[in-house]
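Any chance you could type out a protein's amino acid sequence plus the matching backbone structure tokens because I've never seen that pairing?

——
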Amino acid sequence: MKPTTCIAALCAALLLLACPAHAIGFQSERALAAGEVDLRGLLAGLERQRANAIRKRDVAALRHLMDRQYLHVDSRGRVRSKTELLSALERDDFHYRSYQVESAEVQELGGGAALVTGNFTSLQSGAKARPFRGRYVHVWVRQSDGWKNTFHQVTGIRPASTRCQCD
């Protein structure tokens, strides 16, 4: 390999390391408006970034991905604001050994909004940790600095009961 090629490759690698994960793949508003960007692919990528940031407790990446008015409804019905969720992650109130998105379906709602639904699995750290499988709903809104997650809700998926208690 030529020295100039090596230097160029090294500079590119250093640039990628210096950029925060949330900045890689950022799409300009002009490109989005012109239809040059696959919005479904972009939001699916942002979903993967969000899942990785949750698993790694990457508060900086999450702060960038979340809207200022973000609300987080967990599987037990607890509601947290953006600040409350990020503070809990910083305090290490919960930590995931694994957090994996199984599926994500993106639906464009128009007016700069999109709905993402899917399934995920997770396993928190700790002696009493047990696997969790859930269905999630995320609402994303387009803002001047990119797409932001403004709402999150999870419902646990449990095996179907053989006997209906509703009759």
Remarks:
- Confidence is low (pLDDT under 50) at residues 1-27.
